[in-house]
Amino acid sequence: MESAINEPLQQQSQISRNKKERNREKFSRTWPLHLMLLPAAIVTLIFAYVPMGGLVMAFQDFKPYDGIFGSKFIGLEHFRFMFEYPDSKEVIVNTLVISGLKIVFGLIVPFVFAILLNEIRKMFFKRVVQTLVYLPHFISWVILGAILTDMLGSKGIVNTTLNSLGVETIPWLADGDWFRFTVVVSDIWQNFGFNTIVFLAALAGVNPALYEAAEVDGANRWKQTIHITVPAMIPIAVVVGTLSLGNILNGGFDQIFNLYNSLVYDKGDIIDTFVYRTAILNGQYSFGTAVGMFKSVIGLILIVIAYRLAYKFAGYRIF
Amino acid sequence: MKKWLSLLLTLSFAVAIAACSGGNGNNEPAPSSSANSGSNNSASEAPSGDNGFVDGKYTTPITLTTVWGLNENAAIFKEGESIEDNVLSRTIKERLGIEVKYNWVVTNTNDAYKTKLRLMLSSGEKMPDVVVYRGDLETVNMLIDSGQFMPVGDLVDQYANETYKKGLELDPAIWLPITRDGQKMALPILDYAYNGDHVMWVRQDWLDNVGLEAPKTIAEMEAVMDAFVNGDPDKDGQKNTIGLATGFKNGFNNWMTDIGFLFGAHGTMPGQWNLTADGKLEHGSINPAAKDALAKLKEWMDKGYISQDAALFDETTGSELFTKGEAGIIFGPNWLPAWPFPDLQANVPGATFKAYPVPAGNDGKIGSAGGNPPSNGYIFINKDSKHPEAILHYYNWFFDNTANPQPGSEFANGFAEGYDYALLPDGTLTADAKKYPELFPGLKEQTAPPLFYSLTYEGARIPTLYADTHVKLASGAAPETPYEKQEFNTRTKENIDAMKVVVDQKDIRMKNYYMGPLTETMQSKNELLNKLLNETYSKIVYGQQPLDSFDTMVDNWLKSGGEQITKEVNEWYEKAK
């Protein structure tokens, strides 16, 4: 009886011992690979993890003169200040609205565009379009900002065209609501090329046999798109959407900073521009760190949630 | 075998990275050791007893330690020369017996000099004999607060020469930013005065086309702007012009495309601290007079006198309205003919412009921002320095010799032949290194003005010299001294005349009286208050908010910290004045 009980246990320890041995054996074969990974790990450690130590500034009354080690700790004072600041609510709402719109339309537009582009049979034309829509992605907002301010001004090319068509001058950048519209549209124009390429890559992987089979079953082009193309793209769309959720508190500093003005503060001022003015211009580095930390934490939480949801509903794991 | 090869590669790579990052880490302490040894050197070399400065020279040469950030101008060296050893440092050593020793030198891109200075401060390092800083007041304050530098008041009284003293006396407010408990904590580096003060630039050809005189009052200016908008001043048959080029994206008191004059004509100046009749400082943006000015500005916007995009433009983009030939008036400094007006002449051939005095308000009030003390940077003297007076002897020498050399004197042509000037075989002066590269040996077709190597950035500048010279030249006098000749040859007639306009109007300038560091409440509330001001101002001008929201704004401003800031500012002023 006793031996009968002990036997499986012994077996189990035997197995684990075997596993350990196998691991050791495997390691003795692969350790040069691990070593080759080491430099990258060290670099990541130095440049991505060590600077995180600077986050303690968020809990300090940081004075450059005293340094990180000499500055006084004041607990959550900066976080309290952040939520009690009269403009905080407005700024957070603006950020959520602007980046929410950017995320939603930034997903829909390339999704549809990729499907349309995929229907084009002329390879040359497809490639050219693909490259052209990707190009704006590489233009800095400092330049784009100047171009847009010029084009969208009261005497810019857009408004003069509208005027000649009998439409009244539109304050693209001088009115809060129009400003949001301009920001979202110009951001999508700048960036949809990148996601289009991602979606096109997903489409390239669809098995042509599916289309052939559908054709045999009498499905027309539209039915094929609905039942084969779209489902094939859903998983990658979930990935793109999940990753972009981490940016929900990033309204796009370069863009807003180069386009906004005092007329649109109430609708266009986002967390980053607000932090730039408070923290950088007024030397409140601790406060800036606190807001940055707040943003990162919210972003992390959102990514984790979206990741779980993606797995649950789309059955897709990214990591 | 292969395994070993990969291992070797990996190891060498890892070592290289470790070495790199280790090197970065080690860089910081390095200056400290050299800083210490540097000051030790100067201590040991210092002569005992009297200062040893006889007949304009230290009989036993002394060493002056410092740190330095090379800017674009001063980074051009002749082959074989450097900031430590060049024609200027040799001259100074020979004439004055002062050897400048640099504990460290950085190329000053992205404020590297400031960053390194701040690092020195935060690690509590010992400062060199002299620290020169040109830049933000925050760093200036940190330097003062470090407690390593000495008050300079007595030194100035004792050692500064007449030229430097006169420059300092031009405006006692020059000491305000660096005064602590009545003690002057740094030497101001002087710069040319009145250089940022505004005039009204008007398109002369437009004025002639509409048959009007230059406006002297706001009312006359409105008549001119009306004619510029509706009278087709550019004679192209289209209604495509506006009156005034302005842009208030950055506020309502700007260094170019300024609109502050309109507030000045109502008796206040926004965005700065003005001195009121009862001797207190007041933030100009909340003065009731600003409300009237805003009402006027809104009227101008409605009538099309100013651009509908004015709130989108900063100074540079706003000035394009003028240089594109769209607007007829712009407010800015005397030097606009050098930049950006050449663009106007390129865009609109035959365009002419002229400087006129800032117009007065309808009840005679007049004002324009400016008139700030002519300082640009500070010299800090270490309180442990063996020769605290040495830097004054150094600065004096430049005032005496290079600031305004007389014809025929040693530095009349420039500092050194083959550096910033050369003489052609026929004896004429040239600074064209591209045309005569053989006359500037060791330089790659460029000149290297040695004065930029000086600790005081450009040798020495006599504040009144620039304005005096221009006033003299504007009256038609022939240029005599090398400086006058240089200005006469490089400045346009419009520029020179504009400077005379500035000097004639020097009494209308409204100075920003607060020159201290950001106060505690400013640090936490400035953003909120500025946003409130700029948003309300812009929205009133655009008609997105009623004029009476000005009063609500003032209440909010005072309640949200403005009252506290006003108190702190006045406390500072009481102590500093």
What do these coordinates show?
The complex is a heterodimer of chains A (319) and B (577). Chain A is mostly helical and 319 residues long. Chain A folds into two domains: 2-73; 77-314, MetI-like fold, CATH 1.10.3720. Chain A is 75% helix and 1% strand. Chain A contains 14 helices and two strands. Chain A has a two-stranded antiparallel sheet with strand order 1-2. Chain A is flat, with a radius of gyration of 27 Å. The mean pLDDT of chain A is 87. With 577 residues, chain B is α+β, with helices and mostly antiparallel strands. Chain B has two domains: 36-192 and 373-463, Periplasmic binding protein-like II (D-Maltodextrin-Binding Protein, domain 2, 3-Layer(aba) Sandwich), CATH 3.40.190; 198-369 and 518-576, Periplasmic binding protein-like II (D-Maltodextrin-Binding Protein, domain 2). Chain B is 41% helix and 13% strand. Chain B has helices spanning 2-27, 29-45, 87-96, 112-122, 137-145, 153-159, 162-169, 204-210, 218-230, 260-264, 289-303, 315-323, 341-347, 390-401, 463-474, 482-490, 493-504, 520-541, 549-576; strands spanning 53-54, 57-58, 62-70, 98-107, 130-133, 179-180, 183-184, 187-190, 198-203, 242-244, 273-275, 281-283, 327-333, 353-356, 368-369, 375-381, 422-423, 429-430, 509-510. Chain B has a four-stranded mixed beta sheet with strand order 10-13-9-14. A three-stranded antiparallel beta sheet of chain B has the order 5-16-8. In chain B, strand 6 and strand 7 (183-184) form a beta hairpin. In chain B, helix 15 crosses helix 17 (493-504). Chain B is globular and about 70 Å long. Classes of the chains: A mainly alpha (319), B alpha+beta (577). Chain A binds chain B through residues 32, 35-36, 38-39, 42-43, 46, 64-67, 70, 81, 85-87, 146, 149, 153-155, 169, 173-175, 261-263, 265-266, 269, 274, 277-278, 281-284, and chain B through 3, 6-7, 9-11, 13-14, 17-18, 21, 118, 121-123, 138, 142, 145-146, 248-249, 307-309, 311-313, 317, 326, 518, 522-524, 526-528, 530-531, 534-535, 537-539, 542, 544, 560.
